[in-house]
């Protein structure tokens, strides 16, 4: 099996805009089916002429330079008003009806590798507020334009006393000068699309040259996170229960939709059966500290406690929204812990998840290795945490998660730095329906080391 895996797990070739109609100066898209998203609907068309809607959210495919350029060109051709935020060039441009109107320098973005790293993708302006107060950061954000969860475009923040924040301060938002933020605020309307581009997502087209190992997993995939090249795979699009791999998306949803400073009061309802009971009814613990038992000890208690911030029903809905935004079209979540058999995915969908975490949420990977001892929140509240991720002490293990349940068997989704022909490559290894997930994973990694050679990327 030697093929390329399209970024975002979808064989996307180009973007097609449906019939565009101008009404009273506004541009509307006439939908082929379903409701339009705000004023626009963009369809992706594959080689079989099948179409699917390009939804707002964190789309790794949109961060690929060529694909990003095609989407932008279609927006321009369709005379759509939109925002382009180039996080590599640190430049933001507003287009009115397909023509550039204003370009502003981006002064700061989320620090790379932090949990507040600014996510690349296609978003929309969800609101407008002249002077939003962030309870999360304790600062005012002038001319705020929220575009994704806790992420905003805004002017220079300042404290309630009027003192501006330091230039090194960042909560992950796209910061403009206050004057520029006011200009942009006056230009945009609710629902304006926001294209956020980061060149680090770009596939570098490295190619590999292969045999197949014997393992117990019913479905598996080994793919390069930089080139999207699939080295090994079996039943890569077969849907299967994933058990506690669910908690990776629980952590993503918590990081994007919950103020991790929030204090959670533990209740009796949160004390569900789990691998290692830790929580005590009546105690108070920050949402961030709940991530440690969630990802290291696969705590079902921590998953339920995090979801309680927003209500479990809404939280699970956000998890499903997050999966769809990453192109995980065959993935469904029914609870935040992964205990239900209805939590299902495919190894290709899980590759898309690992790729997004690797590029935009690497602090989650660090948590799973047990190496994130300190953070902006200080040392973890738990002093005797174990690490159920069996490869935590392997230096080449970059992070991941294991799951076990009666319906799923053993599951594992991991990322490794593997040296091939003297070159270090980041590989995603996913196994589902296994009898020995750790052994299967190690067999796959060793097989890649022994089998593959690197061929220089073609120009």
Write up what this structure looks like.
- The protein is globular, with a radius of gyration of 22 Å.
- The protein folds into two domains: 3-200, L,D-transpeptidase catalytic domain-like, CATH 2.40.440; 207-455, 3-Layer(aba) Sandwich (Beta-lactamase), CATH 3.40.710.10.
- Helix 4 (246-257) runs antiparallel to helix 5 (287-296), helix 5 runs antiparallel to helix 6 (300-307) and helix 8 (347-360) packs across helix 9 (362-369).
- It is α+β, with helices and mostly antiparallel strands.
- A six-stranded antiparallel beta sheet has the order 1-18-17-25-24-23, with helices on both faces.
- It is built from ten helices and 26 strands.
- The two termini are 24 Å apart.
């Amino acid at each position: 099996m030697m093929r390329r895996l399209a970024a975002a797990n979808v064989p996307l070739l180009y973007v097609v805009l449906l019939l565009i109609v101008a009404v009273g100066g506004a541009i509307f898209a006439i939908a082929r089916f379903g409701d339009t998203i705000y004023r626009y609907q963009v369809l992706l068309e594959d080689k079989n002429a099948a179409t699917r809607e390009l939804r707002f959210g964190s789309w790794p495919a949109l961060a690929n330079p060529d694909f990003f350029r095609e989407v932008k060109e279609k927006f321009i051709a369709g005379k759509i008003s939109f925002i382009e935020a180039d996080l590599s060039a640190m430049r933001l441009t507003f287009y009115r009806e397909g023509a550039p109107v204003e370009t502003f320098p981006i002064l700061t973005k989320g620090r790379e590798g932090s949990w507040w790293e600014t996510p690349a993708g296609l978003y929309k302006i969800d609101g407008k507020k002249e002077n939003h107060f962030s309870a999360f950061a304790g600062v005012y954000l002038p001319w705020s334009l929220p575009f994704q969860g806790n992420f905003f475009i805004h002017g220079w923040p300042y404290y309630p006393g009027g003192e501006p924040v330091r230039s090194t301060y960042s909560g992950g938002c796209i910061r403009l000068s206050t004057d520029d933020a006011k200009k942009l605020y006056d230009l945009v309307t609710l629902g304006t699309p926001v294209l956020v581009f980061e060149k680090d997502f770009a596939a570098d087209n490295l190619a590999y040259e292969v045999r197949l190992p014997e393992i117990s997993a019913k479905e598996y995939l080994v793919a390069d996170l930089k080139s999207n090249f699939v080295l090994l795979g079996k039943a890569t699009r077969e849907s299967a229960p994933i058990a506690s791999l669910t908690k990776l998306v629980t952590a993503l949803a918590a990081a994007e939709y919950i103020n991790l400073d929030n204090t959670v009061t533990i209740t009796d309802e949160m004390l569900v059966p789990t691998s290692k009971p830790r929580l005590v009814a009546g105690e108070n613990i920050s949402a961030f500290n709940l991530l440690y038992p969630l990802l290291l000890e696969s705590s079902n208690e921590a998953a339920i406690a995090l979801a309680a911030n927003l209500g479990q029903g809404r939280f699970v809905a956000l998890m499903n929204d997050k999966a769809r935004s990453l192109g995980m079209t065959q993935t469904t979540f029914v609870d935040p812990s992964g205990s239900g058999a209805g939590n299902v995915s495919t190894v290709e969908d899980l590759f898309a998840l690992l790729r997004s975490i690797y590029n935009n949420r690497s602090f989650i990977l660090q948590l799973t290795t047990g190496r994130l001892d300190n953070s902006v929140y200080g040392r973890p509240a738990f002093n005797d945490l174990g690490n159920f991720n069996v490869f935590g002490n392997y230096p080449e293990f970059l992070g991941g998660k294991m799951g076990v349940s009666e319906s799923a068997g053993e599951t594992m989704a991991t990322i490794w730095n593997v040296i091939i022909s003297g070159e270090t490559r980041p590989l995603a290894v996913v196994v589902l329906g296994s009898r020995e997930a750790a052994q299967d994973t190690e067999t796959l990694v060793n097989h890649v080391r022994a089998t593959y050679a690197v061929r220089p990327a073609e120009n």
